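User: Please predict structures.

Assistant: First:
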Amino acid sequence: MSVPLVVVEGPEAAVDDARGELASLGWRGVVEVAVTDAASAATAVLAALEGRPVLVRAAAGRDVVDRLCDDLRRLGHLDHRVGEPAGPLTAEQHALLALMAGGASLGAAARALHLSRRSADRRLAAARAALGSASTGAALAAYRRRLGRLPAGTIPGAEGDRPAG
């Protein structure tokens, strides 16, 4: 698994979302950098060169952010997020995610909600899209953060930079 390199251009809520996602995936020792100029961009690149996971709040000019993104792409996969965090969930999506966040499988959640498996799949896909998540695990992490089960302002653990587990 490659070390995450995340650049967020958006409101603090989008940074909080990325921070929580990294924490829920078990990443420790994430270097957070507010990039406002070339010097702070260099700090982020140096951390990435050391093999540390990096979360950047990009607030610099376009030329600095573009150069930073180019540099980070040379070091690994860049998750570049632009804009607002995820949108609202419907009551049906909320009910499905609540059951799954509580440990139910998709099939069990579908049965509990009196849905076919196919309907549950569609509802889950719509929830992933609303949360801006590429996977069910990431969607559940985003959902838990929305409920306040994961602290948005901290990343647990201090040592190491690999996922726990």
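Second:
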Amino acid sequence: MILTPENYYSPEANFEYMSVSQFKDFSGTYGQVGCEARAMAKLRGEYQEEKTTALLVGSYVDSYFEGPESLERFKSENPEIFTQKGELRAEYKKADTIIQRIESDEYFMQCMSGEKQVIMTAEIFGIPWKIKIDSYLKDIVITDLKIVESIKKMKWVRDLGYLDFIRFWGYDTQGAIYQETVRQNTGKRLPFYIAAASKEPTTDIEVIHVQENFLREAMHTVQYHIDRIKQVKSGKVEPERCGVCDYCLRTKKLRHPIGILDLTAGI
């Protein structure tokens, strides 16, 4: 299957190719519980995640920097966040503030000045993967734009302690897959940057180099999980339910009572 901007997110493309977001749906991250049942339901078109205000703010900024066509498509798909005059409603105005802050910084914009939304494919651990790069400066750097809650705020992870937002949300995995895919297509192993802007009252910005040791560790995690994901996605084994995500809560069926200790089993 030849990928294009029009079919990149199609069900057919998602079944034929693995992507970083799909991988994280199956395996999870420190910040998101993986759920095989939810991942398969998304692939089959039976479940869609709710569009929150925070998600739409980030998606608007992403679309803006992807280019006019992407922005117009976003507007047509999300008319509810705009007034009749075509302006953002009050609760989404933060997106404009973030855009203005990003555009005011020369270095940030330099890192985002590469070719936009570059599609590449590669075979990694025996299956085809697809990526779409926010900014590709050929032979120089791969940059991904992230609009986040906070850049500096640490997240607590049991047994690990405080963790940065990059590893908490699995963006190191994204960097590893993107770097390897570009290497297979060009022969060049490029650095991976995250150009981050926060949704805080005063927008913070940073360009973060995700170093090689973190990318190698993330790739080992992909290798650890990928065989199980291949089995589930191909239908050879039944997907497991996590029991705690929105999809599982919405679709669970009670068959017997549980005991008091079952309520704390996952703690």
